[in-house]
Amino acid sequence: MSGYSITEPSRRTKWLAGVLVAAYAVITLIPLLWIIATGFKSNTDAIAYPPKVVFTPTLEGYVNLFTVQNRATPAQLAENPPETWYDRIVADRGMVISGPSRFGERFINSVIIGFGSTFLSVLLGTLAAYAFSRYRVPLKDDLLFFILSTRMMPPIAVAIPIFLMFRWAGLSDTHAGMILLYTAVNLSLAVWLLKGFIDEIPREYEEAALIDGYTRFQAFVKIVLPQAATGIASTAIFCLIFAWNEYAFAVLLTSGTAQTAPPFIPTIIGVGGRDWPAVAAGATLFLVPVMVFTILLRRHLLRGITFGAVRK
Amino acid sequence: MSDTAIDRIARRTPPHIARRVRGLSDRAIAWIFITPTILLLLAVNIFPLIWTVWLSFTNYRANRPGAEVQWVGLQNYQRILGNPETWQSMQATAHFLLWTLALQVAIGFALAWLINARFRGSDLWTTIIVLPMMLSPAVVGNFWTFLYQPQIGIFNSVVAFLTGADPAGFSMIGDVRLAPWAIVIVDTWMWTPFVMLICLAGLRSIPPSIYEAAECDRASKWRQFWTITLPMVLPFLMLAVLFRGIENFKMFDLVVQLTGGGPGSTTELTSINLKREAFEKWRTGFASAYAVILFVTVFGLASIYVKALNRVKAR
Q1: Closest CA to A280 of A67, A38, A89
Q2: For residues A131 and A125, what is the distance between their CA atoms, to the nearest angstrom?
């Protein structure tokens, strides 16, 4: 009976709990799996009744997502026989590819704005968090609360003046404007999360470095930063996911050059009704990286989510 | 010591600057580190807020930058509070808020409690449950309109299979009575894991010795749940409700993609209503007053709630 605790749930309780949680998880997963599956369906399979679980996979949705097509007559098709595999998929439906779609650009915009704003918010956030953690700053608690309270604002409420500011400064629909905006939105969370991580690093390490003749700044770069690396990485992932998923500001402040994927994907339409496989293909490419990230880095992410609650 | 980029920069720095950097007081470093953050937050958060308040007293329209701007006093506020449309969207928001919070608390707590039994594979299942909240609400909400399609949608098929109803006989987002529930279902699917994770943190913070003591006193499991588990998790649960409450009061992206506020204006939450006024009708002054009212409401409700929360914590 070694290691037996009176508070440990019985084996049957554990089994029952496991089954219930697994059942919920499977139900949760169905819509996500359905998105991925729909991306590989043909248009007829996607809107079949009853909904098809077993189907022949095709890349039609992905081809439609990345290309703009025109209708072609059989004679035209016979004249220019399709050469590549994607030409062939399109030709089967009596179409020809006339050029690339906007999806690639929008996806790249998401990457640029996401990584740019993540880099900036982690950089500024780490500096501020270090200062708040190690130095006596006047009005420290007020400043920290101020930083946190900026997160309570409804995006639509600040969107009006930001829209006017951006128009005045020429930042509307630019990458720089969106990076700056997302940095500001993410900073509050970044400062709070990073302050928690830096608080946990013992001051003795830095003090030893200072005695060895390091300057404060060198001690910060060589001692604190490596120690806080995990914390910085998980903060970065939070900022990246936020910027990646953001919709409200993106839809109001961008329209062309700097538009990110979330406002773009819902506007994908096909010829005669919505092209659901193409929408699903776009959604899959957009969502799957986040899912993979979440699964790989679950330990750090889950800690970050509950962090605020456990701290205060 | 290895030759890092910092060392190289340090060597290349002219001596008079290096002396100054080396000689920086702690106080100077602190301010250099903090100032950029504060400035950016002032520029992108506080300044716009003040501007919004100022605009709310004017009749400014952003689509007519050249027009003369008139000071209209409290007229915008009067119009909003006297407008039945506002109250309708407030009602829609209240319905959405109450039901999502109730469902997410109930399911989230139950899941956390089950996961806390620490069965094998609990980590894996927890991660799967968490997936929806990491995803883009706009993209996911948009795809849910496909799942909700009458006849061809998988949601309708599953409901039809379970209840025997006709899958083509109802439309979750097209029906005035069902649409408010359609948004509640998707939000619950997406955000229950958040409540679950915070409850789980709460459950894991309870020291096992308390249960051991209760066990020695022959307290029943039922009694232990009501007198130990629930009171000790309550502060966490209330915090989760606060976060979700603020987020869902601001709700925009998921619902705008799911129903667009329709059918009619049955699911037109305040944020969607506000967006219409500001960026479709371009009544900038009016919309600013609306934004101020919403902001004051969130802050007011949140601070009353935080007071209650602190009382629970102090116990």
Answers
A1: A38
A2: 10
A297 neighbourhood in chain B, CB within 8 Å: none
Query: Å from B268 to nearest chain A CA?
Result: 14
How does residue B129 score in pLDDT terms, banded at 50, 70 and 90?
very high
Residues 6+ apart with CB under 8 A from A60: A42, A43, A89, A93, A277
Give every CB contact of residue B200 below 8 A, 6+ residues apart in sequence: A306, B112, B115, B116, B126
Q: Which residues of A touch B257 (CB under 8 A)?
A: 247, 266
Those residues of chain A that have pLDDT short of 70 are 1-7, 272, 304-312
CB within 8 Å: A29 and B295: no
* CATH classification (class only), A104-267: mainly alpha
In which residue are the tokens 């809107």 written? Answer: A47
Q: What is the CATH number of domain B80-314?
A: 1.10.3720.10
CA B41, B45, B49, B51 dihedral sign is: positive
Q: How far is A79 from chain B (nearest CA, A)?
A: 38
How long is chain B? 315
CA distance A84 to chain B (A): 30
> Domain-by-domain residue ranges, chain B?
5-55, 80-314
Q: What is the dihedral of CA A227, A229, A232, A233, to 10 degrees?
A: -160
Nearest-CB residue to A153 (from B45, B114, B275): B45
**pTM of the predicted model, to two decimals?**
0.87
Domain ranges across chain A: 104-267
Q: Is B49 within 8 Å of A22 when comparing Cβ atoms? A: no
